[in-house]
Amino acid sequence: MELIALKTFEKVAKEGGILAAAKQMNTVQSNVTTRIQRLEEELGVKLFSRKGRGLELTRPGVILLEYAQQILQLERQAGMAVRLADKGAAEIKIGAMESFTATHLPQLLGALRESCPKLKPQVTATTTAELLRAVLEHHIDCAFVGGPISHPDLISVDVMSQELVLVKPKTVAAADNLVLFREGCVYRQKALQWSRDYQNNRYGLSELGTLEGILGCVAQGLGVTLMPRNVVELSIYRNSLTFETLPDEVAVVPTQFIRHRNTPRLKVIEALFDSLRWLPDRAEAV
């Protein structure tokens, strides 16, 4: 199996069709079709079946996808390791929650670039659920997520603990509405837990996609939210907000670093940990 065939197969599986995959790979449909056909002939199985106007994986296709993702991840990391050994440029794909991205990731990346000047970090900021899926499917190398996380295919290390607070507008009355991130955010789960256990589910629900968007809406009285204390203190809306402490079972959320158990240990990952001076000693086991 050629790497280009596996890359094409993975892209078709992700995009759900030949045309979309061809656009993503900047090639023509016939090239994509030919590579898939040759791969199917080599393996002696059908990898896709028709579903409406698109394609879906067959059972053999599902199995191959898991191996293809691991092979392609290993190929990319092998190239990274070789280029780093020669002090050349390399990439690392890091994922993080919005809150960690806003408050800690810039300093972390700055320290990382000092130890690896030619490193090219690629950052994905999204929900914990999406980051877990991205690491498990080998789309990113590692991620900072809201915990606790327990998965047989992941190695996780406690990085720090965040304190969630109840955030309200300072000068106007707040509507009975929770302003939260979309599904998959650990802070959203905590907020819904607080509403259920302490507020009899009296709050409605609004969803937004950014930290400042949420805090800006709360500042205008559109509702309340649960957010890490340091995020509120650093917000551009901090003078228009007030916050209250919460019970420990709601307030305490660990931030964890995760990577796939099958991902080879790379020096760049070690350099990443060296940049975290507040990381617990047990992080060395990663």
TrEMBL record:
Pfam families: HTH_1 (PF00126), LysR_substrate (PF03466). It comes from Amphritea atlantica. Transmembrane segments: none annotated. Residues 1-58 form the HTH lysR-type domain. This is LysR family transcriptional regulator. Coiled coil: none annotated. Keywords: DNA-binding, Transcription, Transcription regulation. Belongs to the LysR transcriptional regulatory family. InterPro entries: LysR_HTH_N, LysR_subst-bd, WH-like_DNA-bd_sf, WH_DNA-bd_sf.
